[in-house]
């Protein structure tokens, strides 16, 4: 499932992709959720789709905390699939603009399209709901 589909899924259920704004929240989510998911990770509600390098949460909360894995966010794409070329891709698929959290609780900027055999998309999306 790509990030947009995950975001739409959460909206449909009355929530949004999960937003993490502190170390304690990240620890909580790691303990409760990511430790039991596949190595492909899960989508969170952050993206730099609008402006490369400027990360925003889907609920517009201030981006004040991050838990990037080193050397993320690397906006990688062209480096790993040069043969695919950028010209046929929609804008949102060029580079990596979507926040995902790995099993180990660290973050990566991921791509939101299938890249053929190189599909690094998360298999799941983590939704957050207001109580
Ligand atoms: Ca990016
Ligand atoms: Ca990345």
**CATH class type:** Alpha Beta
Report the principal-axis shape: globular
> Which regions are unreliable across 5 or more consecutive residues at pLDDT < 50?
none
**Total domains:** 1
Strand content: 15-25%
Give the % helix. Answer: 10-25%
Q: Radius of gyration, rounded?
A: 14 Å
SSE sequence, one letter per element: HEHEEEEEE
Second CATH tier, the architecture? Roll
- What does the largest sheet look like? 5 strands, mixed
CATH fold-level name: Mannose-Binding Protein A, Chain A
Helix count, DSSP H or I runs of 4 or more residues? 2
In whole angstroms, how far apart are the ends? 26 Å
Mean pLDDT: 85
Number of strands: 7
Under CATH, the homologous superfamily reads Mannose-Binding Protein A, subunit A
> Which ligands occur here?
calcium ion
Structural class: alpha+beta
Plain-language structure description:
- The protein has helices at 3-12, 23-32; strands at residues 16-17, 42-47, 56-57, 98-101, 107-110, 124-125, 127-128.
- With 131 residues, the protein is an alpha+beta fold.
- The protein has one domain (3-128): Mannose-Binding Protein A, Chain A (Roll).
- The strands form two sheets. Strands 2, 3, 4, 5 and 6 form a five-stranded mixed sheet that branches.
- The two termini are 26 Å apart.
- One calcium ion (CA) is lined by residues 72-74, 76, 96, 108-109.
Put the structure in a nutshell.
The protein has 131 residues and is α+β, with helices and mostly antiparallel strands. The chain has 2 helices and 7 strands.
């Amino acid at each position: 499932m790509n990030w947009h589909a995950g975001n739409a899924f959460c909206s449909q259920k009355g929530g949004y992709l999960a937003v993490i704004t502190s170390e304690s929240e990240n620890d909580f989510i790691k303990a409760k959720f990511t430790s039991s998911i596949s190595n492909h990770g899960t989508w969170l509600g952050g993206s730099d789709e609008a402006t490369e390098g400027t990360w925003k949460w889907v609920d517009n909360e201030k981006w004040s905390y991050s838990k990037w894995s080193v050397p993320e966010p690397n906006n990688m794409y062209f480096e790993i699939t040069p043969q695919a070329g950028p010209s046929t891709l929609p804008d949102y698929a060029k580079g990596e603009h979507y926040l995902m959290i790995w099993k180990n609780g660290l973050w990566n900027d991921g791509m939101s399209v299938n890249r053929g055999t190189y599909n690094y998309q998360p298999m799941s999306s983590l939704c957050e709901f207001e109580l």
